[in-house]
Amino acid sequence: MDQQLNLVTLGVGDLAVSRRFYGDGLGWTALLDVDGIVFYQIGKGLVLGLFPLADLGADTGHPATAGTPFTLAQNLDSPAEVDAVVEQARTAGATVLKEPQRAVFGGYHGYFADPDGHRWEICHNPGWSVADDGTVTLTPVE
Q1: Fewer CB atoms inside 10 Å of the end CB: C or N, the chain?
Q2: What is the value of pTM for the model shown?
């Protein structure tokens, strides 16, 4: 198996609510929006899918339950951008879990939860860079 990830699918309680949150609230453009699922391109070769929780369970053959044992993250170019995105999410209906602030690792970050409780870290990490070919370089921040 190649070391790659192409699709992250979030099980959601109400697809219409999630569609409004990501599309209308955060301003994301759907890559494909069909009855029962919506996809957003979120990076080079990377897509986020929103799929009703019950349908996700049926698709896998095992019940799917809501949970937060992980976070999704977006790294931005400045603390001001972090502030703006967290505020945009708040306005769209997110629950802000941690107001933007200086992070222990030396950057700047905040957290919010979408309408289904999926946690997003919005971050400025000056030690993070992405080359034109998509290769990530991550170095400690002093």
Answers
A1: N
A2: 0.84
